[in-house]
Amino acid sequence: MSETEIRDDRAAGRLEAVTDGEVVGRIEYFLLESPARALVPVHTIVEPAHQGQGIAGSLSRELYALAGREGVQVAPLCSYVVNWAEHHPEAAPPAGPGLVSAAKDWLRAHPERF
Description:
With 114 residues, the protein is of the alpha+beta class. Helices cover 33% and strands 29% of the residues.
């Protein structure tokens, strides 16, 4: 089995796991600008043939690493990422409740986005 590469498609709002040139998993997100810049994951999807291989966890870890490199927070709305963050507090600093609330407001205002 080939190694999985994780790449950020910022224009599309997707963090993608790619194996042998095929996207096998992704986190769909948006960039919140206010009250602070944050990456907001909304959905985590792994293709059925690739489930159980740690892809969703690798995507979550890379999302937090990417946010750290950019100096922004993660305000997770995706239940998988919320759960992953609770189990990996060393890699996933919590976002303030105001930031999560603002992310939810943005999502309600832009239902066509997801």
